[in-house]
Amino acid sequence: MLAPVGIIFVLTFFRLIYFQLDQGAEVEGRVLSRVMYETEIEAPRGKILDRHGAVLAEDRGVWALEMDEPAKLRRHLRPGMERELLKRELTLIAEAAGVPLAELAAVVLNPKKTYAVLADDLSSSEHRRLAAILRTMRGSGIKMRRHWRRVYPQGRALAHMVGLLVDHDGKREGVLGLEAMCQDDLHGQDGSKASLGVAGGRGINPALGFQAAQEAPAVETTLDSRIGAVLLEQLDAVQLEHNPDWVAGVVVDVRTGDLLAIGGLPDFNPNWPGENTTRDEEGHLLGLALPAFWPIEPGSTCKPFIVGRALQEGAIQETDTFSNRGGTWNIRKPPIRNASGVPDRPMTPREVLAYSSNIGAGQIGLKLGVDGVQRAFRDFAFWEPLGLSLREPFPGIEPAAKYWKGKQGTIWTVPSVSMGHQLQITPARLAYSFAALVNGGQYFKPRLFAGQPIAAPRKVLSESVSKFLCMAMTDVVEMPHRVWLPRSSGFRWGGKSGTTQKLHESNYTSLFAAFGPTENPEIVVVIVADNPKGKEHYGSKVAGVAAGNVLRRSVELMARAPRSVDLVPASTGVMFSNRKP
Question: Who contacts 268 (Cβ-Cβ below 8 Å, separation ≥6)?
């Protein structure tokens, strides 16, 4: 009779050993999975800083007041809860959270509700007050949860370049500019904590594991928030006075290629971009594009490139003169005409630029020749990628090969491109190309990050030709009749305007490229206004005033906080719902 009992005992003993040795970890894991809760701790996103350390974007901790318990565990739904006590407790919570009592009660006293956000964007002081109140109301089911809110202290200034965050499929997604470009670099290391179920709720057990979240390192840029604010102010002034369809501006340090500021209108405030966003088929946001990357005809801002390269290659001399042919050049039909106000007399290359003679520029282009003009555009990187890792919708338009051949090239293409027609370039590319005209003839690749090495520049003009262009374009500003352009006694500057009428339209593109100081250029500013609808359409009157104002203020601001950088060999590569304001 004892034999079967003994056999059962032995089998049970070995079964227990088996479970202990081979199945223990599996069983333990299965049991723990039923009572253990693991919560992810979101890491704060890294900061984006300007060249002086000013914050362009950062995460700030805010608190949400949440109800997160089933009805049977909530204090305020228990039978026998005194009515006066209930009202007093809910009133304390409502006043501390800044929400109407009726709205709070409608959620807390609804037995069908198991989760709700009662208040969001609560400050640290509001959190401390509410936490003290909730400690006296054990079992209320109401708790505080910390999360991160992306804040943009500069508001609209530099908004297109900085970008913004949106909630997409439950995750914070960077869109546009640096927020999108540095999405992975800005994402910190999330933490985690584990807790055990305690009395129907969740209690933390440090022994189960805790890993603190870590913020990502800051992204330091070449942008200057102060210059960005000045640029925005002047773009607003252009918009107000001339009512263009859009206006854009770019500010570049000609000595390093640093992008100091870039912006455009229409724009947005990243602190409150709107809840309804529209996306294209690839998932990119629509309606927030930066017009500084939209191609335009450069108009007369193209003339200094042709004159400078013709001097560089010896195709013309500074003392040569070019006839204005009575204001009409019948090289083709329709003929090439000068704008009103251009004197009908022979002009030197310097005067061709100062008076913006279309006929003179066309003749200089023919002296340079088809190959010389094409080389100039290539060397000045008219259609070369900027290398900023941004989504540039279209680099521009270069005349096709067939348009450069034979008679087509000599009577149409070369004269047309010499005065800035029959081609397109983006304002951002124009700014960098223009910088090479005035900084001693060195083309710098654009630089956006403070730690990014500066590649040795490409030489495109001699210093003497660059100096000649600087003086000729200073004449543009200092001509006695151009009284509308801003001047000051201690600051000389120069620039070139552009005014192009759109094909088959009565609309214009008005732009101005400015540089300064004349004696030792530091900054280039390009302002473009599309289809101005005020009294003026000439580039110097629509965009010149804003360009001059931004230029002077930028030079002043840079002088207050100089930044030195070292060149590296050219072969060195570079890897690399909010509250309303």
Answer: 156, 159, 164, 274, 288
